[in-house]
Write a structure and sequence with these properties.
heterodimer; A: alpha/beta; Rossmann fold; six-stranded parallel sheet; 22 helices; 39% helix; B: alpha+beta; Alpha-Beta Plaits; 2 domains; 44% strand; binds thiamine diphosphate; binds magnesium ion
């Protein structure tokens, strides 16, 4: 390795390129002038100027979730960094790999309440996997390499690097591209053979096996293995919200999403199974409900996760397996070759019948035409290709999408699962489109959520990033309204959104294609117009003001206590 | 609830203490004592954490600690297989000769050192197991404690 004299900012850019970074989302500022000076001439890294730092983080997150590569976002010191916070927390809780670079006041001014000083290092400590405050330019090569290594291995997550102005400006002799990694960081990747053997035996002997697939299946790239395992066992597969796409939801063994807004049959399968293989999931309360005695009470629970801290955290586990999901499934499959798999056709028949009955109920609802939101999702699901990417905002729109959108490929359903961040979907769609320019990208938005980050329509138009925002325009903070309707006596406190803005005009003001969709039948042509326009687009879809996402597990309930099941006549 | 002692080997970076205590706060874990000190290896520090909790809580703490990037090693110390020490400095009122004599006698029986004496008070130093210090402190309260300082525990495993 050769020693070169470089400025800190030059080192940062050299190391980013060495880590394979092709694109960064950010906004400059006083504490980042040195870095942006170097980026000015840079051809290998495309910088996309966002209009809000929260969007920069969400875009980097969307990019990471779609591509599997670490996303990069950049913000200046003080307000720039604090604006990033929501986006970083959103990515970290969903184990999405991001490296965030923030400017900081010069080292000599740290702690003086200097202009635009905020203690980014301490603010972001609890919402990142790790963070660095770099005090010496010489440390930059090692820190940047470690940041990417930590973000993208083990349980993936967010790493932030805080860069004081003088650390960027100083010129030092350095050796680039160090290979060393932090001494205390050794992710547990390789699953224990004794445990995977036990898992295989349990699954082979199960009468009623179910696989629960979480986001870890997608992030470890284990979807082929999962499908293979499900077919080998004849096990039903339910997913978490983050696991949508782990198995095609059109697959005969797929039971869709379980949990609070999941499918009845998925929740019943969890309740009735005698062996549960949970893969890359953290058993969040949105999945399990609050009556844990209803959650797989008869099952031997096998839990595979790369993060040992997730095992036995929320649900007591019989067979813990710490390691990479893909490797664990491969091992289980190998052990299964030696096992004789018990006939479970009765169980498979029951799952199929429940599934079919539920479809029947859904069709009843659609025939009645009483709720437009779910029909629109069904339409979207029919219109979009299986490789199209759907992102979501948060609220009813998100849960309608989770429930009715048929996800067919991994990394095509992008949603804020853990933090539930309104305003995530649209900037995440920007990142998604940048990561996959050849795929169609649609944000399933709520009218409330979209207003939180819509200023980045400017970014889309300017950079020719063609995402289509489909606004579920119910003029309500609908999900909160639904809770008020069901549990607070219809007292709609602060959930009505009034009549402004006109979303079509808003889209047009930014230079987007925009159209109002009054009826679900008109969605197809509107979407067609949007894609044909070649421009970013805003579709204002009028939906039933009081549509509700049902059935659901009420607060305090367990997975078999779903309410709103009157419609579920056939199950 | 039992007191558990965890010994950690951590990178000696600025912020590592904040990260550590932040983790405890974030997970709702109450720590009864936390000490940091240099150790035999350059660039590393040793931390001794005492927490009150059940076995399963301890298990969770151990895993969360291991997850911190700057933590190299987490060892659960078995209280019976470790040497555990706390250091205490206290200023005790000795208003009259009688009190003074009594304090000095008790100090001697506890192996506490008299590190300073003035007309109306004595400063004592005691290094011992925390429970022994607790008992000594209780005794000294009868005379009137002016000030009490404890370092928190540090511990070493016999076999590890
Ligand atoms: C940033 C943020 N603030 C507040 C909330 C609480 N919240 C959850 S859903 C919701 C309403 C969302 O409204 P909208 O985007 O219109 O979607 P809808 O439910 O109407 O489909 C709110 C306010 C949140 N999840 N995120
Ligand atoms: Mg709404």
């Amino acid at each position: 390795m050769t020693v070169k004299k470089l400025s800190g900012a030059e080192i940062v850019v050299e190391e980013l390129k060495n880590e394979g970074v092709k694109v960064a989302f950010g906004i400059p500022g006083g504490a980042l002038l040195d870095l942006y000076e170097v980026l000015y001439n840079e051809t290998m890294i495309k910088h996309i100027l966002m209009r809000h730092e929260q969007c920069a983080a969400h875009a980097a997150d969307g990019y990471a979730r779609v591509s599997g590569q670490t996303g990069v976002c950049i913000a200046t010191s003080g307000p720039g960094a604090t604006n990033l916070v929501t986006g970083l927390a959103t990515a970290n809780i969903d184990s999405s790999p991001i490296v965030a670079l923030t400017g900081q006041v010069p080292t000599s001014a740290i702690g003086t309440n200097a202009f635009q000083e905020a203690s980014t290092f301490t603010i972001t400590m609890p919402i990142t996997k790790h963070n660095f405050l770099v005090m010496r330019t010489e440390d930059l090569p090692r820190v940047i390499h470690n940041a990417f290594y930590i973000a993208s291995t083990g349980r993936k997550g967010v790493v932030l690097i805080d860069l004081p102005k003088d650390v960027q400006a100083n010129r030092v002799d350095v050796e680039l591209h160090p290979g060393d990694t932090p001494p205390g960081y050794k992710p547990n990747i390789i699953p224990n053979k004794v445990q995977t053997k036990k898992a295989a035996e349990t699954l082979a002997n199960a009468e009623r096996p179910v696989i629960l697939a979480g986001g870890g299946v997608i992030s470890s790239g284990a979807t082929d293995e999962l499908r293979n395992l499900a077919e080998t066992l004849g096990a039903g597969v339910v997913t978490t919200l983050m696991g949508k796409g782990a198995i095609p939801e059109t697959h005969p063994l797929s039971l869709g999403m379980a949990g609070m807004h999941g499918h009845i049959y998925a929740n019943r399968a969890l309740n009735e199974c005698d062996a549960l293989l949970a893969l890359g999931t953290r058993f969040s309360d949105r999945l399990t409900g609050w009556q844990l005695d209803q959650f797989a009470p008869d099952a031997t629970i096998i839990h595979v996760d790369v993060d040992a801290a997730e095992i036995n955290k929320n649900i007591p586990v019989d067979i813990p397996i710490v390691g990479d999901v893909k490797l664990a499934i491969s091992d289980i499959l190998k052990w299964l070759e030696k096992e004789c798999i018990r006939d479970n056709s009765v169980w498979q028949k029951r799952l199929k019948e429940m599934h079919a009955a539920c479809e029947e109920c859904i069709c009843d609802v659609w025939r009645a035409g009483s709720s437009t939101s779910d029909i629109l999702i069904k339409e979207l699901s029919n219109i979009l290709d299986s490789n199209a990417i759907v992102t979501t905002e948060v609220g009813q729109c998100q849960m309608f999408a989770a429930h009715y959108y048929m996800t067919r490929e991994p990394r095509t359903f992008i949603t804020s699962g853990g933090l539930g961040t309104m305003g995530f979907g649209f900037p995440a769609a920007i990142g998604a489109k940048v990561a996959a320019p050849d795929k169609k990208v649609v944000d399933i938005a709520g009218d409330g959520s979209f207003l939180m980050t819509c200023q980045d329509l400017a970014t889309c138009v300017e950079n020719d990033i063609q995402v289509v925002v489909c606004i579920f325009d119910n003029r309500y903070l609908g999900m909160v309204r639904q809770w008020q309707e069901l549990f607070f006596d219809k007292r709609y406190s602060q959930t009505h959104l009034g009549i402004t803005p006109d979303f079509v005009k808003l889209g047009e003001a930014f230079g987007c294609y925009a159209e109002r969709v009054e009826k679900p039948e008109d969605l197809k042509s509107a979407l067609n117009n949007a894609f044909e326009s070649g421009k970013p687009a805003v579709l204002d879809m009028i939906v039933g003001k009081e549509d509700k996402v049902l059935p659901m597990i009420p607060p305090g309930g367990g997975i078999t206590n779903m309410i709103g099941t009157e419609r579920c006549k056939h199950v | 609830m039992q007191t558990r002692v965890i010994s950690l080997l951590v990178e000696d970076n600025p912020g590592v203490l904040t990260r550590m205590s932040g983790m405890f706060t974030m997970r709702g874990i109450n720590i009864s004592s936390l000490t940091v000190s240099p150790c035999e290896k350059e660039g590393l520090s040793r931390m001794t954490v005492a927490i009150k909790g059940s076995e399963s809580e301890l298990e969770k703490v151990r895993k969360q600690l291991s997850n911190l990037i700057e933590v190299l090693k987490v060892v659960d110390l078995d209280v019976h297989e470790s040497i555990i020490r706390d250091l205490c400095l206290m200023k005790v009122h000795t208003r009259n000769t009688e009190a003074r004599t009594e304090v000095m006698q008790l100090a001697e029986s506890y192996n506490a050192k008299i590190v300073h004496a003035s007309f109306d008070s004595i400063i004592l130093e005691l290094t011992a197991e925390p429970e022994r210090i607790d008992r000594f402190v209780e005794l000294m309260k009868h005379f009137g404690l002016k000030q009490l300082f404890r370092t928190g525990i540090t511990a070493i495993g016999i076999d590890y």
